């Protein structure tokens, strides 16, 4: 009886080992298939991302808008510093005898141009980031499209543009005040000359 039990045990054990080996082979084949599918899926997603970038207006408009945004930021920083410097130092008559207001007027014109560029950039970004209902319906919630990923980047630029607009407006008002102060100073100087 012990030998029969041992024989049954060995038979069951060998059968179980064979079943485990077969199952192990099946699982390794399935895992290799799954890993191949995962690699293929990631490659397909990358291809879709790049094809989508190249297929719509983002391919042409987005780079130029972003370059314009960055250049505008540099120009604003430089011009705001120049405006502050000009407002803090009043030009003397020796610098521009015929028109001491010329530096102020030139700086105000440059500020006007930057404010106009800011409005144009804002409008460009808004039009670029407006959602199309047909695109929105096709989007996969788990894997956002290239367009939706870029929309977030460009949408983050809008508050920065609004802050720049406020800074440019403040610089404009500062220069207007400095210009008025210079005009009053010149008027007082002219009154002093008349009294003499």
From TrEMBL:
Residues 15-26 have a biased composition (Basic and acidic residues). Residues 1-36 are annotated as: Disordered. Keywords: Coiled coil. Residues 104-131 form a coiled coil. This is Uncharacterized protein. It comes from Mycena alexandri.
């Amino acid at each position: 009886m012990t030998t029969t039990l041992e024989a049954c045990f060995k038979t069951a054990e060998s059968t179980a080992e064979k079943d485990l080996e077969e199952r192990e082979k099946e699982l390794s084949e399935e895992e290799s298939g799954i890993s191949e599918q995962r690699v293929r899926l990631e490659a397909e997603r990358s291809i879709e991302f790049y094809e989508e970038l190249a297929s719509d207006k983002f391919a042409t408009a987005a780079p130029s808008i972003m370059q314009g945004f960055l250049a505008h930021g540099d120009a604003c920083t430089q011009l705001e510093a120049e405006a502050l410097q000009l407002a803090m130092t009043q030009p003397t008559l020796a610098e521009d005898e015929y028109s001491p207001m010329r530096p102020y007027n030139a700086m105000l014109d440059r500020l006007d141009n930057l404010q106009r560029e800011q409005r144009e950039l804002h409008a460009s970004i808004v039009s670029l980031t407006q959602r199309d209902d047909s695109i929105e319906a096709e989007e996969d919630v788990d894997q956002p499209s290239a367009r939706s990923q870029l929309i977030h980047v460009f949408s983050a630029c809008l508050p920065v543009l609004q802050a720049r607009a406020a800074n440019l407006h403040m610089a404009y008002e500062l220069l207007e005040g400095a210009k008025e102060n210079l005009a009053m100073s010149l008027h007082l100087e002219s009154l002093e000359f008349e009294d003499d």
